[in-house]
C-alpha cells in the first residue's frame, strides 16, 4: 500500500483481556518494527522483523507480549492478560533495509 | 546499550533559526536519524546522517560529528507549523539493518 496501515486506531479493553494489534507495512519494505509511546514519553522499542531472519524480541517487556509477521508482510502484536501499564500508543513502522522509518498512525490502547 | 540526550523543551520565534542538539553514547555507530512528530500524530522521517558534516534539505539541515557523539537539527525561517517534537534516533550498531533507539524528543514551540 501507499503507507503503513494500523488497526484498530483506538482500542479500549478491560484489564485481563487479550488484544491483537495489526500492522500492514509498505509493500516491498523488508523491515518492520513495533514501538510504543506513553503520553509525553519517547519511543520504546518492542520487536523488529527483518526479512526471513529471526525477529529481534529484545524489547518485549514481558512474556505477555508476542508478535508475528506472516508471509513477510502483515504483522500482529498480541498482548495477553492486559494490564493498565500496557496503556500506550503502539506504533508500527516499516523501512527498506537500513533506511528511515515510515510510521503508521498508531493504535491507542487504553486498559480500564 | 545506547544513551541519547536531547533538551526537553525549546521555544523560538517565527522567522528565526533554532538548533536542536542531540548527544549520544554508543559502543559503535551506524547512522543517526531525525524525526518530526506533531502532537497526536506519528513521527515522520526528516534526515539521516552516517558521515560527518552537514546535510541540507530545504529549511532543515542536520549535522553530525561522530568523534564527539553529537548531532544537531537546524531549522531556518521558522513557521508556526514547525511546532512539534523532534526525535533523535541512533541506529543499533550491532545489527545489519535498521533497529533504532530513540531519544525522548525535544518539544519545540514556535511563537509569533
Q: How would you characterize the largest beta sheet of chain B?
A: 6 strands, mixed
Biggest interface, and residues per chain?
A-B, 23 and 23 residues
Helical residues, percent of chain B: under 10%
Individual helix count of chain A: 0
Categorize the overall geometry of chain A: globular
State mean pLDDT of chain B (0 to 100 scale).
92
H and E string of chain B? EEEEEEEEEEE
Radius of gyration from the alpha-carbon trace of chain B, in angstroms: 14 Å
Residue windows where pLDDT falls under 50 for at least 5 positions of chain B: none
DSSP helical segment count of chain B: 0
Written account of the structure:
The complex is a heterodimer of chains A (112) and B (112). Chain A has 112 residues and is an all-beta fold. Helix content of chain A is 0%, strand content 47%. In chain A, the strands form two sheets. In chain A, strands 2, 4, 5, 8, 9 and 10 form a six-stranded mixed sheet that branches. In chain A, strands 1-3-7-6 form a four-stranded antiparallel sheet, with no helix packed on it. In chain A, strand 6 (65-69) and strand 7 (75-79) form a beta hairpin. The relative contact order of chain A is 0.33. The model of chain A has no long low-confidence stretch (mean pLDDT 93). In chain B, strand 7 (60-65) and strand 8 form a beta hairpin. With 112 residues, chain B is mainly β. In chain B, the strands form two sheets. In chain B, strands 2, 4, 5, 9, 10 and 11 form a six-stranded mixed sheet that branches. In chain B, strands 1-3-8-7-6 form a five-stranded antiparallel sheet, with no helix packed on it. The A-B interface holds A 30-31, 33, 35, 41-43, 45, 48, 50, 56, 91, 95, 97-106 and B 31, 33, 35, 41-45, 48, 87, 89, 91, 95-105.
In short:
The complex is a heterodimer of chains A (112) and B (112). Chain A has 112 residues and is mostly beta strands.
